[in-house]
Amino acid sequence: MPRQLRATYRVQLHAGFDFAAASSIADYLTTLGVSHLYCSPYLQAAKGSTHGYDIVDPRAVNRELGGAAGHARLSEALRGAGLGQVLDIVPNHMAISGPDNPWWWDVLENGPASRYASYFDIDWDPPETRLRNVLLLPVLADHYGRVLERGDLRLCWKDATFTIQYHDHVFPVAPQSLDTLLMTAAERSGSDALAFLAGALSELPSPTVTDRASVERRHRHKTVLYESLARLCAEEPGVVKAIETAVAEMNASADSLDALLERQNFRLAHWRAAARDLGYRRFFDINGLVGLRIEHEHVFRDTHRLVLGWLADGTLDGLRIDHPDGLRDPEAYLQRLRSDGPDAWIIVEKILEPGEALRGSWPVDGTTGYDFLNRVSGLFVDSAGEKVLTEFYAEFTGESTDWPEVARAKKHQVMRETMGSDLNRLTALFLDICERRRRYRDYTRHELHEALRDTLASFSVYRTYVRPEPAVVHEDDVRRIVEATDSARAHRPDLDGELFEFLRDVLRRRLVGDLETELTMRFQQLAGPVMAKGVEDTAFYNFNRLVSLNEVGGDPGGFGVGVDEFHRACAETQARWPRTMLATSTHDTKRSEDVRARLDLLSEIPERWAQAVHRWAVRNARHRRGDWPDRNAEYLFYQTLVGAWPIETGRLTTYMAKAAREAKAHTSWTSPDETYDAALRAFIEGAMADLAFTVDVESFVAPLIAAGRVNSLAQTLLKLTAP
Questions:
Q1: Peptide bond into 629 cis (omega under 30)
Q2: Is the dihedral of CA 285, 586, 721, 349 positive or negative?
C-alpha cells in the first residue's frame, strides 16, 4: 500500500544535485515532517538538462543523475528513512536532440516508414507539396542555400556510419540516398560487394510505403546491409579509402551535397520557417520538443513502462502529470493511467482560470496547487487600493488597464509571430471541412484562418475537453465555446457571422465526421499553448499594475480575494478534492511566495507607493537614453526592486532583460533590439549605482520587511491547515 501522504518536498534534480545528493537529505526531510520526496522528471533527458522535462528516452533512468543504480540507492535510502516518493512525468512531448532520442532519429532516417513514426504528432501530408512526407527542421541560422554554399553543412562518415552535420546538430542519412555515393566508391575501388550494397540500399521499400510488412522488411534489410558495409570496410582498406574520397568530393560540391540533402526524409531550413511551415506539434513554441501521440496504446506502454513498474513495486506512491492540456484526450489518458495505478496519488498540472473547476470525471486526486496559490495570495491584497493603483499605473505608464483586451491582443501576437504553423494546420483542416459542405465552400482560406484565430484569442480558459468519440459535450465546454465564438464574432464584424456559428457547431460536436473530429481535437490542443504563451509568457509582462497578481492561473484584472470567498473555495476543495496539492511556490511561478507577499503590501499603501515611484522616476531620469526604457518596464523595475530587496545588480539586469523580451513590446527573443536592450541595462546599472536612489529604496522597503514576513508566515500557516 502507498505510504500516507502528509507533505511533499520537491527537489530539482540535475548533474549538480543528483540521486546521491537527494539521498543525503532523507533524514533531514524526515525531521521536517515531510512524508514524500517529490522529484523532477528523472527519465533519460537531453545531455546537460537542468530540469528533466526534455526527455529523450523514457525507457532509461537519467545517467547524469546516477542511472538505474543511483536511482535504486535513492529509493532504498528513502525507504530506510520512512519516506515515499512522488515523480513528475512528461507524457506530452519529448526532446529531439540528435541520436540521443533513438525514436526520433529513426523517424529522421526512415520518414513515414519508421517504426516510430506513429509515436510523434507529425503531419506527413501538409497542404504544401514541397513538404509532403518530409519533416521540416528549422535549425539553420541562415537560409539553406547560403548555409550550404558557405560549407557549414557536411556529410560525415565514421565507423561505417554516415551522418549530416551542421555545427552541433547531427542528422542521419536516408539509406536509399547513399546509392550514388557508394556506387561511385565501388567503381573506384573495383569492389563488387560494395556495388551490390549500393544497389540493395536503393531497392529498399520506399519511406512512403507504410504497411507493416514493408516497414519491417525495410528495417530488417537496412540493418543487414549496414552490418555488411561495416564488415566490408573492416576487411578492405581500399573500400574505406574510396568512400572517404567520395565523401570529400561531395562536400567540395554544393550541388552534389544539395542533391543528397534533397533525398532525405527531412528538410533543413532557416529557424524562422518554424513560425509558418512546421509540420509537427510542439510543446508550446519550442521547436526542440515534439508532441507525442500518447493516445495510442503502444505509445503509452512504451513511454510509461518504467513508471508503471515503479508504481507496481512500491518505489513510487504518486505522480505529477505535466501539461495534460497538451494531450489529445486528457481524460482517456488519465483513465488508462489510473487503471494501471489504482492506488496511486495522481495530481495534474491543470491551470484553472477564475471560475473554472477541475473536471469531476477525471480520475485524479487534484491539481498541483496553482488554484490554491492564487486564492491564498489574493487574501493579502487590499481591494481598497485598487482604484488608486489602477489610476496611477495608467498615468505613469500610459498603458491600458483593460486586462481582457491586453490578454486578447497578446494571444493574437503570439499566434502571429510564433504559432502560425499550428494555426495554418487548423486552417487547412477547416478548409477541407468546408469543401465537403456546399453551404460553406465559398469561404476563403483567409476568412477561415481569421475566424479560428479570433476564436482562439477569445477563450477565457486554457481549453475545452470535448472527447473524440460522439458523446454528450459537457455543459462547461458548451458554455466556453459559445462565449468564445460570440466574442470573436463581436470583434470581427468584417467576417460573416454564420462562419462563427458553423465553427461553434463543429467544436461542440453538433456536426460530426472524421475531419470535424480532427479539427475539434487539434483546436483544443492549440488553445492551451495560445493561452500559455499569450497570457503567462507575454501579457503577464505587459500588464504591470500589481505584479504579485501576475501568477500562473491568476487574474491580473482582479484585485484580491475576500475571506468568505476563500472559505467557500476551501469547503468545495474539502468536499471534492480532499487530497489535492496545496502550493505557494513552484518551479514555474513567476515570483517566489515571499516576493509576492511583500508586493501585496503595496495595495495597502497605494498613495505612498505612487509618491515613491514619482520621486524615483525624477531621480533616475538622468540614466535614461531618450525614451528608453519605456515607463512600463521602469514601473516593473521598481516593483521588482521592492519585492526582492536587497538584490544584486547583475541578477536584476538579467531578470529585467528576460522580462522585456518576454513582453515582446520593444525587444524579444526572436527579434532582439540591441539599442533598447542596452538602454534598459544602462538604466538599471545607473540607478543601482546611484547611492541616493538605493538609500531611498531601502528606506521605503524597511517598514515592509516585518509586514511581509507576517504575510509569508500567514500563507504558510494557511497552506498547512487548509484542505
A1: yes
A2: positive
Q: How many CB atoms lie within 10 A of CB 470?
A: 9
Cβ contacts of residue 612 below 8 Å, gap of 6+? 638, 696, 700
**Cβ-contact 700, 708 below 8 angstroms:** no
pLDDT for 97:
83
Of 371, 393, 419, the last residue of a domain is 371
Q: Which residue numbers in the chain have pLDDT < 70?
A: 1, 470-471
Q: What is the DSSP string of 469-538?
A: SS-PPPHHHHHHHHHHHHHHHHH-TTS-HHHHHHHHHHHTTSS-SHHHHHHHHHHHHHHHHHHIIIIITT
Q: For residue 481, what are the contacts with CB-CB under 8 A and spacing of at least 6? A: 464, 504, 507, 508
Locate 424 and state its grid cell.
495554418
| Same domain, residue pair 136 and 75 | no
Q: Give the domain CATH number at 318.
A: 3.20.20.80
How far apart CA 214 and CA 216 sit, in angstroms, is 5
pLDDT at 3: 84
| CA 264 to mean position of chain CA atoms | 28
| 677 and 631 assigned to the same domain | yes
Using alpha carbons only, give the angle 297, 127, 530 rounded to the nearest 5 degrees.
65
Residue 41 sits in the same domain as residue 12: yes
Taken in order 680, 685, 690, 695, the sign of the CA dihedral is positive
Domain of residue 636 covers: 594-721
Residue 454, domain member (yes or no)? yes
pTM above 0.85, yes or no: yes
Torsion of CA 410, 413, 414, 418, to 10 degrees: -170
User: Does residue 117 sit in helix, strand or coil?
Assistant: helix
The count of structural domains within the chain is 4
Residues 348 and 298 in one domain: yes
Together in a domain, 35 and 114: no
* Strands 43-45 and 55-61, sheet pairing: antiparallel
How far is the C-alpha of 645 from the C-alpha of 696, rounded, in Å?
A: 12
User: pLDDT value at position 127?
Assistant: 87
Pairing state of beta strands 84-89 and 36-39? parallel
Q: Does a structural domain hold residue 378?
A: no
**Do residue 221 and residue 300 come from a single domain?**
no
Let me know the angle formed at the C-alpha of 588 by 582 and 591, rounded to the nearest 5 degrees: 90
**d(C-alpha 243, C-alpha 182), whole Å:** 7
Helix or strand or coil: residue 669? coil
The verdict on residue 564 lying in a domain is no
Cα separation of 526 and 507, whole Å?
13
- Any alpha helices (H) in 418-473, and if so which ranges? 420-435, 445-457
Q: How far apart are CA 597 and CA 715, in angstroms?
A: 8
For 413, the grid coordinates are 501576437
Nearest to 119 by CA among 105, 99, 129, 132: 105
388 located within any domain? no
**All 3 cell numbers of residue 282?**
510542439
Sheet holding 161-166, edge to edge: 153-158, 161-166, 169-172
In this structure, are residues 524 and 465 in contact, taking their beta carbons and an 8 Å threshold?
yes
Say what the pLDDT of residue 183 is: 97
The widest CA-to-CA distance across the chain, in whole angstroms, is 89
Query: Which residue's entry shows cell 505557494?
Result: 584
- Contacts (Cβ under 8 Å, ≥6 apart) of 282: 93, 289, 290, 291, 422
Last residue of a domain, one of 371, 392, 417: 371
pLDDT at 2: 74
pLDDT attached to residue 469: 83
